[in-house]
Amino acid sequence: MNEIGKTEASRALSMGQLASMACLVEVTTVKPGNVHRGADFEDATYFDFAASAIVVAPAFDRAVNAGVGRTVLDAAIATRSAVGTNTNLGTLLLLAPMAIVPRHDSLRKGVADVLRTMTAEDARLVYEAIRTAQPGGMGQQAEADVAGEAPDDLLHAMRLASDRDLIARQYVNDFAEIFELVVPTMQEGRQRGYSLEKSIVHAHLQLLAKHPDSLIARKCGDETAGQASSMAAGVLASGNPGDEAYERALGDLDFWMRSDHHRRNPGTTADLIAAGIFVVLRDNVVRPPYNLYD
């Protein structure tokens, strides 16, 4: 297939298919501490994540007309109905604004515009989606708590949570970590000749090293989240993907993350990685035929 044919094939994917592909590539990539096809959790398996990736596609195909809140809620309901557990709430929150941006528009500018035009109805539906997904470790907050009535301004609620939640921070800073860290690291990896999988894992480590994982912090505390970041930085300092020292340090990080009944699972980091994969697929940084290992 020539380059024109590859671009046309990628363009032919609907927003729903792009969302499904991004979710499937993310969970299939062997990242430290996360579910993948060689590692399940007791309460969430690779099949759960793969099934979730499939069933959310219709919601994202309707996103441009449905809006952020309806898209997140419909996808959360589809996920809960299919697998009965929360596999993807953070990813849904990140993909929904991006799926609304027309393909011919700049994604980064479009996301900023979408975020600034959300309505009170979007806030109400997002809050309903969060309650539907039933994420763990949310705790209670003095203002804009997800167990209470939704605020009129979703961005206000996200701003209140942005210091403790990396996904909320993306709503406040126009997805800065995704566009300025995750996507460029994936692009750099591909330019250096790394496989798509190694490029994704390297981006995962870069993000984790610079930003402690919100899910780990909620479940285990800030100290453990900081330790995870320090260990990720240690992997990066040990060499490059494929080097013996790098791969050994990566294995040690994976073992440490899984040694506490997956409470040290960097799930928020994985959500931002899925969003970054969506970007590189949508913008043809990675073109079909897709291969994780080349």
Folded structure, characterized:
Helices cover 67% and strands 0% of the residues. By secondary structure, it is an all-alpha fold. The chain has one domain: Triphosphoribosyl-dephospho-CoA protein. The radius of gyration is 18 Å and the shape is globular.
Main traits of this protein?
294 residues, mainly alpha, Triphosphoribosyl-dephospho-CoA protein, 17 helices, 67% helix, globular
CATH architecture: Orthogonal Bundle
Distance between the termini: 16 Å
Summarize model confidence as the mean pLDDT. Answer: 93
CATH top level assignment: Mainly Alpha
Q: Tell me, what's the shape?
A: globular
Per-chain topology:
Layout: H1 3-12, H2 15-28, H3 46-55, H4 57-61, H5 63-66, H6 68-83, H7 89-100, H8 107-116, H9 120-133, H10 154-161, H11 166-173, H12 176-191, H13 196-210, H14 214-220, H15 222-237, H16 244-258, H17 267-282
Helix pairs in contact: 2-3, 2-17, 3-6, 6-7, 6-9, 7-17, 10-11, 12-13, 12-17, 13-15, 13-17, 14-15, 15-16
Compact overview of the structure:
The chain is mainly α and 294 residues long. The chain has helices at residues 3-12, 15-28, 46-55, 57-61, 63-66, 68-83, 89-100, 107-116, 120-133, 154-161, 166-173, 176-191, 196-210, 214-220, 222-237, 244-258, 267-282.
